[in-house]
Specification:
mainly beta, 9 strands, 8-stranded antiparallel β-barrel, about 65% strand
Length: about 200
Amino acid sequence: MKLKQTVMLGALACAAMATAAYAQEPQDSRGFYLGAGIGQFNAGIDDVNDLDDAVNGWDESDTAYKIFGGYRLNRFLSFELDYMNLGKPSGAVVPGFNVDSSVDGWAPYVVGTLPLNRWLELYGRAGYYFYDADMGVTDTLDNRVTFKEDSEDFVYGAGIGANIGDKFNLRAEYERLDLEGLDDADALWLNALWRF
């Protein structure tokens, strides 16, 4: 089963578990939380220095993961710090040349939450991703050129979360990354977190 389908099934499971949950008192809205997530990172290059005719386009994906921690000021506002590893997408960009990339780094976020009821919530997030990017180009003779870059770029996303009991939260999320050198960069995540 593809990872994208798994994330979508996770979102449906969030909704199903939340509606089946028993009635409970609202949880304490302030405090620390820790979590982790798995997802699919998609990267794409439409053109390289306006050489559209020579470039087939590069659109690859790989499994990504994150760990994160944060602090909720109240039910509506949180601050979060994520470590994200976006995997190693790889594929041919022109005949005879393979491109691979590796991106990981830290991202502080502001997270806004809109509780729909005791169990379901919508949220949006915005932050900055401080990352190390390695990109390599390999030809058919295994000659390789590597480019390394440290950079920071804007990231934002939105999702739906399900509160399961007082402490556990399961989230499905779409995130858009404005990474330098890529025309398209986004991720689908399935995250779980524990509130203290």
